[in-house]
Amino acid sequence: MAKKKTILKWIANILWMGIGAATIVLLVAAIRVKDARVCKEIEVTIDAPGDNYFVDKKDILHVISSLSGGNPLNKPAGSFNLKQMEEALQKNVWIKHAQLFFDNIEVLHVNISERVPVVRVFAAGGSTFYLDSSAAKLPLSDKFSARLPVFTGFPSDKIILSKIDSTLLRDIKNLGMAIAKDSFCMAMIEQVDIKPEGDFEMITKVGNSVVLFGNAGDAELKLERLKLFYREVVPKAGWNYYSRINVQYKNQVVGSRRGAADIAADSLRTVQLLQLLAIDAERRASDSSQHFLQDNPGNTADSSIIQQSIQRDDAVDSPGAAADLPVQAAPPTTVAANTPAVVPAPAVPKPVAVPKPATSKPVPKPVVNRPAVPKPKPKPKPPAAKPRAVMPPRNDY
After folding, report:
1. Exposed, middle or buried by CB within 10 Å (0-12, 13-18, 19+), for 343?
2. 115-167 pLDDT per residue, tens
3. Is 24 helix (H, G, I), strand (E, B) or coil?
4. Rg of the chain's alpha carbons, rounded to an integer?
5. Which ranges in 163-233 belong to alpha helices (H)?
6. Average pLDDT in the 277-292 region?
7. Nearest to 233 by CA among 251, 255, 252
8. Where are the beta strands (DSSP E) in the chain?
9. How far is Cα 185 from Cα 200, in angstroms, rounded to an integer?
10. What is the pTM of this model?
């Protein structure tokens, strides 16, 4: 009985070995048949937001062609070193991940995951670069220029950064992504300046206010408080009423009212611009090739009118002329983020009057000499008719 079991065991082992050998033979044959088949088509898929690509299909096909020794179509599938091609594609700074494989109908699939820039940074030395979502530095691309939050004043141009600069790049990336997620912040913030101590200041596109943001901690909460301030307070006080808006303190927004120094600085910049415009206008007027229409009440270019308009605007923005605004002059206090009323800094003295720019003398109108036209002689009056004698009626009939 034991001998019979041993014989059956040997037979089973031989059968399993035969099945295994047949399977291996079939797999090898299938692999050889598949390797003998040729590449019929290449399908490239690029994973990128929208339709804006920093790397295109032409670049990818160029890498594959160079590694396959020419045109990859109609070449045996076994001649493709897919692992080598993936590594070569991932050397491109804009490619985050690459995957290549053949399907059952001999089509080579190339799946590319592209790096997505989230911030554009300008260094103090003059260089500029992008940051992606992993805080990796990316060069500029000649294929597409992304509309992203702009940061200026990054302290280093070196390729290998210090620990402090690397930490600053991560803060820039986090703040830039928080700004990019909000359409209002993207439309409102012109640029973000990096201060030497590592804090951030925002320059707005509308108005002359500077937003003191502090560090990148709680970036989304600070942006929410800034949006609340612009929604509830600025429309009532005016876009130029506050010179500084401070959101770096927790649950607070502090608005500093524009003082005399701020108004004088703005007026001085405006006067300088007017003077440059006046110089340019005089230069154009002296050019004989320029033809100008004669000045008239509906076509005047007197710069004193512009200056008077600027003075009226400064008067409205000045603290003395803001009596109708809801914010009262009081010591500087802070306001909670969910409260619409914001108490600004204390009142400042009246602004110093800015001298008017010297205006050019008006150009005299040309005098046209016209020939004297003789006055027509008056026609002689006809002689008055002599009175006729009227006889009284006779009553002798």
Report:
1. middle
2. 889 999 999 888 999 999 888 899 988 877 888 999 999 998 888 888 999 99
3. helix
4. 42
5. 163-180, 183-188, 219-232
6. 56
7. 255
8. 41-47, 95-102, 107-114, 117-123, 128-132, 137-138, 150-154, 189-194, 200-204, 210-214, 242-246, 254-257
9. 15
10. 0.56
